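User: Fold both of these, please.

Assistant: Here is the first one.
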Amino acid sequence: MTSSPVSLLAAALLTALVARAQITDTADGVVAGIPVNYTEAKTGSYTLPDVLTCADGTKVADAQAWSAKRRPEILKLIEENEYGRAPGRPEKMSFDVFDQGTPAFDGKALRKQVTIYFGADKSDNYLDLLVYLPAEAKGPVPVLLNFGWVANNLAVADPGVKVGRSWNPSQKKRVPATPAPGGRGFGRVTNIPQVLARGYGFAVFNYSDVDPDALNALDQGVRRLYLKPGATACAPDEWGSIAAWAWAASRVLDYFETDPQVDAKRVAVTGASRLGKTALWTGARDPRFACVIASVSGEGGAALSRRDYGETVAHLVEKTRFPYQFAINYAQWANRANEAPFDAHFVIALLAPRPLLLQTGSTDKWSDPYGEFLAAKAATPVYHLFGEKGIEEYSLPPAGQPMMNDLGYLMHEGPHGVQPADWPVFLDFLDQHLKPKP
């Protein structure tokens, strides 16, 4: 039975009213000379491209057609127009497990450290991976892989961790990572004991080990290794930094597939903000990842671009901000979001039927929490093809009330970022979807 246009319109209006009640309009702003809309009524009208209509106009009727035809179409579309094409596994990649399993966290964990070299040249082209596994595990364990903001030795309070590298913007190079005066702050990971207590391993690597999060730094990251001879820039459809960071997570999973203490078929990936976008694209691009938790990914992640609310494509690709994070082609949609043959629900749909939790904040208007909800709602029909549940309600859920279906949604009360109260929900989501069913 299908809904009538009138009933759909009524439902949409009701949803807008509920959203407006929870996310209050505030004064519009300007960022980088570009207007920012924070008024729900000014998001305008738009029509989303149908995730289940193929490029030739045929409709997807089942999971087989989705997997064989529509999903590859969408993956190619997003690669070439948003994040950029990335290479596969490097032929000369190698793993140096220099810490085989040292007791940590008062004996509750075994610490492993691995350097993943991307090629034969080991002077600079590598990432350092830090892994903690439950000490009492009797066999391979599922692992939560976290995109880290800082070097591993700054991310955890563990003196046995190798001193890593930090990107120095003034020197335009990586330097040894030393704690800031007064102790460690930004990027500190404090939830590892919670993760271990649930029976999961925890792994983290510093994203700037892979590609600097900076303008005009292409020559300092992994992408330079794949430039065509004589080229000084990536091709318009080739990878930006987000795709490079996601590519590195796949290299971590390559390592996990060699580690008998890790259940490589039950690896989840998580990150926040630009690393939330990265976690989302990691899972979309590499179906080996069993689960994704994407936090406050916003524009360029899980939020609909057509809404024109908070950050926009134009803000992302503005020349002084973050154009390097995306394929050069992405800039063509800066002021033409309504004309793009895709939107965020296409990226979300690429995860189906694997579990995906989108986490947002009720006052994080810049990232558009309602836009993430609507994108997930629009991607839900793909989960239905596989017999899984997505966003089944029309109304935005109250802050702190998670939707825990295979495609889930959590909005905390508060701003951009991950709050301590979010972590138990994350772990409940992993328990629900990654632990073997009785």
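And the second sequence with its predicted structure:
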Amino acid sequence: MFRLETLARRHPRVYLAAYAAGGLLLVALLVWAFAVLADEVPENGWMVHLDQAITGFIQARDTEGGERFFVTLSLLGGPVLAALVTIVTLALALRREWLRAAVIALGSAMGAGLNSILKQAFHRGRPEYATEFIPHSSWSFPSGHAMNSLVAYGILLVVLLEYTHDSLRRRLIIAGTAILIFLIALSRVYLGVHYLSDVIAGW
């Protein structure tokens, strides 16, 4: 059976070229998907109606217990994530692992910076229910929690996998990270502080 590990070992240049081409193709597809969503923001089209329908459906059925759970979960994509990135970066710097420390710090900072720029560019207002949890005025598209958690936890995942060689443990770490990122994004929709398209665009 064909295995990527075999190709990488026997033909490293071919493997690297194929890997780079696949990565560029994926980036192009994601940029196109974001452009489709972004194009719908100023229009009162299908995306807006779907967003409002989903938000209204959830808000009509949420519970206090659910809100408490998702408020706590949402912290993992905000201040807890920022603290984790800072701690890991400092720990790696103390071990003189400068490259890993720089990748985590700069990658996370650039993701947050790009999100701020995009929010200012699109000026999409938050759902009407957002004032319960976000009293100050801020923009909704794309979701900062969704975008920052995917970028920062994704980078932390890559670094952690470099220290993990057991295949089962690696799969569990990848699955756990994916579930965490998904739940953080879900928390923003459940709490009514973001539309579904906000978190998809953030990803």
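The two ends are 33 Å apart (CA to CA).
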